[in-house]
Amino acid sequence: MKGQEWYQEDDIAEAYEDKRFSGGGRYIDRREKTAVLEALSPLEDRRILEVACGTGRFTVTLADRGADIVGMDISEAMLEQGRRKAAAAGVEGQLSFLQGDAGRLPFPDDHFDAVFAMRFFHLAPDPEGFIEEMRRVTRDQVFFDTFNRYSTRSIYNWALPMGSRLYSDREARELAVGAGLEIAAVEHDFVLPYGFYRAIPKRIASPFRAVDTAVGRTPLGDRLASVSYWDARLP
User: Fold this and answer.
1) Which of 72, 131, 176, 210 could cross-link to 232 by cystine, CB 3.0-4.6 Å?
2) What would the pLDDT profile of 79-136 be if each residue is shown by its tens digit?
3) Mean pLDDT for the chain?
4) How many structural domains does the chain have?
5) How far apart are CA 123 and CA 179, in angstroms?
6) Which residue windows are transmembrane per the record (predicted)?
7) pLDDT, tens digit (0-9, with 9 covering 90-100), for 146-182
8) Cβ(96)–Cβ(71) under 8 Å?
9) Structural domain for 217, as ranges
C-alpha cells in the first residue's frame, strides 16, 4: 500500500487528527461522521467491521451508539491512539481493535452485518481484491468513500505523501458491482477539496463551506464534487 511505512510511524499517528480535523478540517470530520451514521443506522447491537480504522474516529463513535464493532488497521500506532480514545469515551469494553491486513480479513464469511472503510480506497493497490474481502465477510452492507478523478482533488493529488488514487463515477460503480454488490445510494460532496479546509481556520472555513454546500445542491454539484460516499448492498 502506498506510503505504508510513513503511515505507521508513531509521530504520524499522534498528530494525525490534529492535522486533518482541527480548524476547517472539523467540517470534514462532521460530514464524514454524518455519512457513516446515516448509512449504517440503526446501530444498536449491529455487528460492524471498520477496515482501516486509523485512530478510531468512527469506531469509537459507533460503539458509543450501541454498535458491536471491530476496528482493524495495519498500524499499531494508530490503533493505540484508538484505544486511548475509547478509554477516554468510556466505551473500551464495547469494541475491539485488531491489527491486520485488509487484503486478508481474519473473519469467516458473512460474519458482520456491515463493513465500512473511510479514507481507504484512494490508497488501495488492489481495490478489487479489498472490496471482495469486505463483501465476503458481510451478510448485508459495504460502505466506502472515493476521491473523484474529475474534481479539484486532482490539483494537488500528486503532492500527498501517501499518494492517492482517484476514481471516476463509472470506476467506483464497477468496483462495487464487480464484487457482487448493488449500489443502494450514493452522495457526493465537497466541491472544494479536503486540503483546502485543512489549511484554514474554522471561522474562515465556515463561509466557504456554506458556498460549497450551496453549489453542491445545484445540477453541477455532483459533477464537481471531490468525494463520494457509496452505500452498497448484497443483492
Assistant:
1) 176
2) 999 999 999 999 999 999 999 999 999 999 999 999 999 999 988 889 999 999 999 9
3) 90
4) 1
5) 18
6) none
7) 999 988 887 776 656 556 889 999 999 999 999 999 9
8) yes
9) 4-233
Q: The whole model's pTM is what?
A: 0.91
Interatomic CA distance for residues 106 and 44, integer angstroms: 24
Residues 6 or more apart in contact with residue 210 via CB below 8 angstroms: none
The rounded Cα 95 to chain-centroid distance in angstroms is: 18
Which pairing describes strands 138-147 and 47-51: parallel, antiparallel, or unpaired? unpaired
The CATH number covering residue 10 comes to 3.40.50.150
> Which residues, in sequence order, are CB contacts of 5 under 8 Å at separation 6+?
none
